[in-house]
TrEMBL record, chain A:
The keyword Nucleus does not apply. Residues 1-24 are annotated as: Disordered. Keywords: Cell membrane, Membrane, Sugar transport, Transmembrane, Transmembrane helix, Transport. Its main location: membrane. Residues 98-310 form the ABC transmembrane type-1 domain. The chain crosses the membrane at residues 35-68, 102-123, 135-155, 197-216, 237-257, 294-311. It comes from Jiangella mangrovi. It is found in: Cell membrane. GO terms for cellular component: plasma membrane. SUPFAM superfamilies: MetI-like. This is Multiple sugar transport system permease protein.
From TrEMBL, chain B:
Residues 63-252 form the ABC transmembrane type-1 domain. InterPro entries: MetI-like, MetI-like_sf. SUPFAM superfamilies: MetI-like (SSF161098). It holds the Pfam family BPD_transp_1. CDD domains: TM_PBP2 (cd06261). The keyword Membrane applies. Keywords: Cell membrane, Membrane, Sugar transport, Transmembrane, Transmembrane helix, Transport. It is a multi-pass membrane protein. This is Multiple sugar transport system permease protein. It comes from Jiangella mangrovi. It is found in: Cell membrane. PANTHER family: ABC TRANSPORTER PERMEASE PROTEIN MG189-RELATED, ABC TRANSPORTER PERMEASE PROTEIN MG189-RELATED-RELATED. The chain crosses the membrane at residues 7-26, 67-88, 100-120, 132-152, 173-195, 233-252.
Length: 321, 266
């Protein structure tokens, strides 16, 4: 076996006696081995590394460069050092935007997780038509946010929306949903949870399917109740899936934008002005590209820290079977 | 929970999930919808909205743009991600872990952060308002590398070794051993990649000007401005944009669930 091209990739098999043909090829290969191996690594990495460098890493670094300048996208950039960051941290709007984002996450995450878990548990049982039902729950996931937000904007329309129409039938005077500062964020959360619960369901479904059935059999023999089995078998063994859902949902939650942009545009009265909406407004409405880049780096750092804390903390509650 | 109760709950849930879509279809078939609350069954259903839509924009062109961009970016991402995944899971080279961390970090950068510098880059390259600019950010995917690396790592190393003994090099092992065995993960990723290209909004919004180069979400959002009170037209556009992606998902659903289960995302 040509160990030269596959070093340390696992336990070495005892090679069968090489035929003459193979021995010759190995002899031929022996010369430019290291160079050849480096070439192979480059061959496999280049197709993703080159585009990622050009279209993600370079813009990432240049946005940090922009963050150190005052710039309105038109006139020359003016170097200001960390002034943009200092101003942002002293600005109440920044804190408000982070507050709205956290508020969104605080409402969205528990809601989407509980709904997704309920759907996953129900659709993991041997129901007839299970695949059709799963598809129904997943359909909103594949639909674009522009479509979903337009749809919900209309369903929750204060004057002629379906939701208030139905509420009116049972004598409830529905709120102004996205036109009322109190209800605007709950409207966005509701639409988001509805759209994403299918994704959570799929991840948890896969996790449920990986739990060995014998564990439930053993627990049943011990005379446990359904609740005890859920509490002591399902939940702990589902914790890696839960972990994945929480990490991804947090990253996505901090980056919430499309639905806000289409449903409320950050309004009413700034009630849904989340961080990314703020970045967008700073850039495209006020031409403050320097501040926008600084804010996006603040956001990136927050997400990075939260993710690292999550990954570090996982040992406390995540059980890998 | 008792069986009938469970059935009822799940079915009611499914109806809640599906109802907005049914509503979209109904509205698209209700001429002049949007001023009052349309009836569940329109008095005079008709396809006027679809006709208006086709006249208002080069719709077929926009649909074709979306399709070919989504297919091209999905195929590119599948190949580039799987190759990198193979490198990270099977090849040994200095700085491997550090490089993998760099890939992961790019996952945490919101698209909005990249939009301005990326736009400037495209301007420098004279690519604004071209297909190339539309495609550029989705040639490679860090998420894909992350997902597929888990899948490659689960392919027994003994298979590689057996192939090596038979005289296969890495490229050969990648193509004829690893690729076929990670097909469920590839299918999952293909669906996710197709979805995100099909639905992407911000980047096309920034980089495309000509109506002939628009993709569906962009076309739909301009529709929203043009026909603020004509919901039937907006919803007709929505219906046409949902159908292809729904069909694709239904075809791949089996693989998606399998793929998620096997890719270590559990």
């Amino acid at each position: 076996m040509s160990t030269s091209t596959a070093p340390r990739t696992g336990p070495q098999l005892t090679p069968s006696p090489p035929s003459r043909r193979r021995r010759n090829r190995n002899a031929l290969r022996h010369g430019g081995n290291r160079l050849r191996y480096a070439g192979i690594v480059a061959l496999f990495l280049a197709p993703s590394l080159i585009p990622l460098t050009l279209f993600t890493l370079v813009p990432m670094v240049s946005s940090l460069w922009v963050a150190l300048h005052d710039w309105n996208l038109i006139t020359p950039m003016e170097f200001v050092g960390l002034a943009n960051f200092r101003e942002l941290l002293a600005d109440g709007d920044t804190w408000a935007a982070f507050g709205h984002t956290l508020g969104y996450i605080a409402g969205y995450l528990p809601l989407v997780y509980l709904l997704g878990l309920g759907a996953a548990l129900a659709l993991n049982t041997a129901l007839k038509g299970r695949n059709v039902l799963r598809a129904a729950y997943f359909l909103p996931v594949v639909t674009s946010w522009v479509v979903v937000a337009l749809l919900w904007r209309w369903l929750l329309s204060p004057s002629n929306g379906l939701v208030n129409h139905v509420l009116g039938l049972v004598g409830i005077d529905g709120p102004g949903w996205w036109t009322d500062p109190t209800w605007a964020m709950p409207s966005v959360i509701l639409a988001s949870a509805w759209k994403d619960l299918g994704f959570v369901m799929i991840i948890l479904l896969a996790g449920l399917q990986a739990i060995p059935g014998e564990l439930y059999d053993a627990a049943r023999v011990d005379g446990t109740s359904a609740w005890q089995r859920f509490r002591h078998v399902t939940l702990p063994l589902l914790s890696p899936s839960t972990f994945f859902v929480v990490v991804i949902s947090l990253i996505n939650g901090f980056q919430v934008f499309d639905q806000v942009y289409v449903m409320t545009g950050g309004g009413p009265a700034g009630a849904t002005e989340v961080v990314v909406q703020q970045i967008y407004d700073l850039t495209f409405r006020y031409g403050r590209a320097g501040d926008a880049s600084a804010l996006s780096w603040l956001l990136f750092l927050v997400v990075l820290v939260v993710t690292i804390v999550q990954v570090r903390g996982q040992r406390r509650w995540v059980t890998y079977a | 929970m008792r069986r009938p109760a469970l059935y009822t709950a799940v079915t009611v849930g499914a109806l809640v999930m599906l109802f907005p879509f049914a509503w979209t279809v109904i509205t698209s078939l209700t001429p002049g919808a949007g001023l009052g609350t349309p009836d569940l069954i329109p008095d005079e259903p008709g396809l006027d909205a679809y006709r208006t839509l086709l006249e208002a924009m080069p719709f077929w062109r926009i649909l074709a743009n979306s399709l070919w961009i989504a297919v091209a970016s999905t195929l590119l991402q599948l190949v580039t991600s799987a190759m990198a995944a193979y490198a990270f899971a099977r090849l040994d080279f200095p700085g491997r872990n550090a490089l993998f961390l760099v890939y992961l970090a790019t996952l945490m950068v919101p698209m909005q952060v990249l939009v301005v510098p990326l736009f400037i880059e495209m301007r420098e390259l004279n690519l604004v308002d071209t297909y190339a600019a539309l495609l550029a950010p989705s040639i490679a995917s860090a998420f894909g590398v992350f997902l597929l690396r888990q899948a490659v790592a689960q392919v027994p190393i003994e298979l590689d070794e057996a192939a090596t003994i038979d005289g296969a090099g890495h490229l050969r092992i990648f193509v004829s051993v690893v690729w076929p065995l990670i097909r469920p993960a590839l299918a999952t990723f293909a669906v996710l990649a197709f979805m995100s290209s099909w639905n992407s909004f911000l980047w096309p919004l920034v980089v495309i000007r000509s109506p002939e180069l628009m993709t569906l979400p962009l076309g739909l959002s301009t529709l929203h401005g043009q026909f603020t009170t004509e919901w039937d037209v907006v919803m007709a556009g929505s219906v046409i944009s949902i159908v292809p992606i729904a069909v694709l998902y239904l075809a791949a659903q089996k693989y998606v669930i399998q793929g998620v289960a096997r890719s270590g995302l559990k």
